[in-house]
Design goal:
- By secondary structure, the protein is mainly alpha-helical.
- It has two domains: about 120 residues, Four Helix Bundle (Hemerythrin (Met), subunit A) (Up-down Bundle), CATH 1.20.120.1200; about 35 residues.
- It is built from six helices and no strands.
- The chain starts with a helix and ends in an 8-residue tail after the last helix.
- The mean pLDDT is about 85.
Length: about 170
Amino acid sequence: MSLTTILFILLSLMSVGGALMMLTTKNPVMSVIWLIVVFFSISGHYVMLNAQFLAVVNIIVYAGAIMVLFLFVIMLMNLNSDTEPMRNYKMQMIGVVSGGCLLLIILSALKQLKAAPVQIAVGDQGLIHTLGKTLFTNYVVPFEVASVLFLSAMVGAILIGKKDEENAV
């Protein structure tokens, strides 16, 4: 087995293991932390596919901003054992049966696939340099229009969020 195949298997096990831990952990904060582990392992897959920009954006946007948002929502909900609903075992059994059916479908689809060796993508297709060159040569006008749109959205959000000086006492 090559080093690439071993790395792929490790990242895949990390993704699946982190996802299972996220689903089975009772503490919501720990579930968010396991989801961050999943996002980092997915970013590792992006790096193996020579898509470094997607890997960095995945870490910054999802593992950074979205997970902080999830943590704020969890902490603002103030979950405790008094407010949690009672377990519904009938719904749990429906979930187990439907999950088992999904597992059987996935296994039958995987059984029909032919194994191919894992390879790291070659070339400069997913590199940031190539993306920047294309963005600032072929798509410079839409890029600038989008920047003006984002600027106007920021100004609008500031004006809406600003308190009235006259009505404040």
